[in-house]
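Hey team,

Filing this mostly as a record. A colleague (T.K.) asked me to run one chain through the structure pipeline before their review meeting, and I want the input and output archived in the tracker in case anyone asks later how it was produced. No errors, nothing strange. Just documentation.

Input sequence:
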Amino acid sequence: MTQSLVVAAEQRQADRDQAAAVGEAEGRATLALLRQLRDDDWQRRTDATEWDVRTTVSHLVAQAEDALRLRTMLRRELVGRLHRRGKIPVDAHTAVGVDEHRSDRGPELVERFAVLWPQAVRARRRRPALLRRARMSLGMPGVPRVRVAYLLDVILNRDLWMHRADLARATGKLFVIAEHDRHIVAQVMRDLALQWSAAPVALELTGPAGGTWLIGSGELVAVVRADAVAYLRALAGRDDNVDLELVSGDAAVLTALRQARIPF
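Output structure:
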């Protein structure tokens, strides 16, 4: 291994100030990509099931609206549960927000995102400690209840990052990586390590947002290498057959790494 090994489970969860800085940076990166979209990009399919580019951007706008107005978020949650019973709760909720923007043109959505996302980041940072300590369901099967702070400070930035990757892949635009991307990767590695039950592995993530992470505790059984963005896509359920290179050790860990999932 050419890089120092970082114990992923020892990483601290982002606090509200860190999350705001990362949220602002990721918002700028996403907006820069959105402003490159052309007329023929909006109907391109993305890796997110059932969503094209325009639908994905409408979700980002709806998500910012939810963060700004708790009443809007709760209304969409209720409507989703009542009228979209065939979907898991998180998908039902997002479907309501997307549907409310079904008549909006792509460029209009970009301008709404440009205005609303920075406001949403500031609103999330201001949420009171009492609310942040409350526990909630993320609406995803098998995912335990979490504190509201985890949604505000980790998940919402991570979700935007993954959708930026979806949009870049769908449209052939460059996925630009900056310093804040390293923070997002670190938070994902933290979550992976905290839920990891397989034998300990050194995971070398390559690329500008990469690093070498200890996943699990005890004596290492393998060293595995993967592209950072590609592996985060796999953790989000975007790629069941992500390319993993066994540098050394027990090949059995490759299955565990491919099957692992983290909420985005």
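Quick notes for T.K.: DSSP finds ten helices and seven strands in the chain. The CA atoms of residues 45 and 52 lie 4 Å apart.
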